[in-house]
Amino acid sequence: MSVRALLADLLSPFASSEVERPVPVESCVSTTLDTNGEGRGQIPANSGKANGFTLIEVMISLFIFALLSSAALALLTISADSENAARQKSAEISTLRRFTTILRQDMAQALQRPARDARGNPLPAFHAEDEVLAGLVRGGVQILGEGDAAGSSDIQRIEYRFEDNRLSRFAFAHVDGSEAGRETVIFDDVEDITMRYRLVTGQWQDDWRTENILEQPLAMEMTITRQGQAPLRIMTPVGTGYRR
């Protein structure tokens, strides 16, 4: 066997195999031919692929946006509710402070001075019966009115009443023979009020009754129960003769 034949036999297995060659760039571009067979221009082979978002991508984006919007709305609602609650609490504290201040001033300025109601009936210097929790004549005030009533006296008749779930303060224009004057509603959601009065002997009793029209309790305790709130207890001395 000759050398040429031997080489042919050795290279015969590789003669039928095809070697993969790189695809030329020109094959990635399609050519549009006119009716005459001439090319009018080259168009990228992948130009048929649509640009933009798929439906799933749009739905996911809308879902995320909805979650963010809901979270922002929840935060705004919580912030608004917190602000309203803080405003109501601040107003409640201010009302309570004004009430306790005025109540203690009234009790501290209580005078041993009897009065008369609108029918002319005598009233003790300090009285408490029925809806009246505390009735007294206090000093240290100036009556603001018209005519002869303006600045005519530095004493005033005061009553604290509990009726129709309201705790109110009544100020009378005159000490004697005057109808109930201006009503100032302190609380309008009161469920119950209990009172205690300290006697001269140091004992406490739930009602105030005395034969001496000039006698006053040494101190007064008022426990107010309002709707949805814990009971509020206020203790204050009465008059200048208070002793511990």
Name the descriptors.
30% strand, 244 residues, 4-stranded antiparallel β-sheet, 13 strands, alpha+beta
Give an overview of the whole structure.
With 244 residues, this protein is α+β, with helices and mostly antiparallel strands. It has two helices and 13 strands, in the order αββαβββββββββββ. The strands form four sheets. A five-stranded antiparallel sheet has the order 5-6-7-8-9, covered by helices on one side. A four-stranded antiparallel sheet has the order 11-10-12-13, with helices on one face. It is elongated. It starts with a helix and ends in a 7-residue tail after the last strand. Residues 14-23, 25-33 and 147-151 have low confidence and may be disordered.
Any chance you could write out the topology, listing elements then pairs?
Blueprint: H1 3-15, E1 29-33, E2 39-44, H2 55-108, E3 115-116, E4 122-123, E5 126-129, E6 132-139, E7 155-163, E8 166-171, E9 182-187, E10 190-198, E11 204-205, E12 219-226, E13 232-237
Structural class of the secondary structure composition? alpha+beta
Question: Strand fraction band?
Answer: 25-35%
Sum up the overall morphology in one term.
elongated
* Low-pLDDT segments, ≥5 res: 14-23, 25-33, 147-151
The largest sheet, given as strand count, sense and whether it forms a barrel, is: 5 strands, antiparallel
Mean pLDDT: 79
The tally of strands reads 13
| Percent helix range | 25-40%
Rg over CA atoms: 48 Å
Strand order of the largest sheet: 5-6-7-8-9
